[in-house]
């Protein structure tokens, strides 16, 4: 679920969703791994990920590690479409896997955010966070277009973890 809010406390959202979705009435203690991934040390069976961008908030729960990200699609104040496309293309060249950068160049404004949210979701899932390895894996989707009822974006990330497959969704 994605919520819109003017201001928000991620832990208030987390507590409300835990009560609603999992029947856990009190927010468990939240700790962080060495790389900053939050977790419940006293509730190891509940994994979560939370993200916000502007007024959008998203939270995911699972019995296994999970990563989620949300990004509002915004341009800099006064920036036109052409300037934004150039800026997003340059960022893709700098921070993304080469296969992703090529894909982003075809439609920079929309595709940049699709790749960014997929990559950030993946590094939240693995707990590695954004770092030097961000360009070492690709979330670029297959060339075919999704059919009716399929997610707008789904890709598999292979970050050198063998057969691990992760699905990413974006609207």
Describe the protein:
By secondary structure, the chain is of the alpha+beta class. Helices cover 33% and strands 12% of the residues. The longest helix is centred in the C-terminal third of the chain and has 19 residues, at 108-126. The chain is elongated. Residues 1-6 and 149-171 have low confidence and may be disordered.
SSE arrangement, N to C? EHEEEEHHH
Main beta sheet strand tally, sense and closure: 3 strands, antiparallel
Mean pLDDT: 78
**Contiguous runs where pLDDT drops below 50 for at least 5 residues:** 1-6, 149-171
Radius of gyration: 17 Å
Task: Measure the end-to-end span.
Answer: 12 Å
Please summarize what this structure is:
This protein is an alpha+beta fold. Helices cover 33% and strands 12% of the residues.
How is this fold's topology laid out?
Layout (H helix, E strand, L loop, with lengths): L1 E3 L5 H13 L8 E2 L5 E2 L7 E7 L2 E7 L18 H15 L2 H9 L1 H19 L45
Antiparallel strand pairs: 1-5, 2-3, 4-5
List its salient traits.
two-stranded antiparallel ribbon; three-stranded antiparallel β-sheet; elongated; 33% helix; 171 residues; 4 helices; alpha+beta; disordered C terminus
């Amino acid at each position: 679920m994605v919520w819109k809010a003017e201001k928000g406390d991620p832990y208030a959202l987390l507590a409300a969703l835990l009560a609603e979705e999992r029947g856990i009435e009190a927010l468990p203690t939240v700790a962080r791994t060495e790389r900053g991934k939050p977790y419940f040390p006293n509730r190891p069976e509940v994994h979560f990920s939370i993200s916000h961008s502007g007024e959008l908030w998203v939270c995911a729960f699972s019995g296994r590690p999970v990563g989620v990200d949300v990004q509002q699609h915004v341009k800099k104040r006064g920036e036109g479409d052409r300037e934004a496309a150039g800026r997003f293309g340059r960022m893709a060249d700098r921070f993304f896997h080469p296969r992703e950068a090529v894909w982003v160049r075809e439609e920079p404004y929309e595709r940049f955010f699709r790749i960014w949210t997929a990559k950030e979701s993946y590094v939240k899932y693995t707990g590695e966070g954004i770092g030097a390895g961000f360009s070492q894996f690709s979330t670029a989707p297959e060339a075919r277009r999704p059919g009716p009822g399929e997610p707008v974006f789904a890709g598999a990330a292979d970050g050198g973890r063998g057969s691990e497959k992760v699905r990413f969704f974006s609207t």
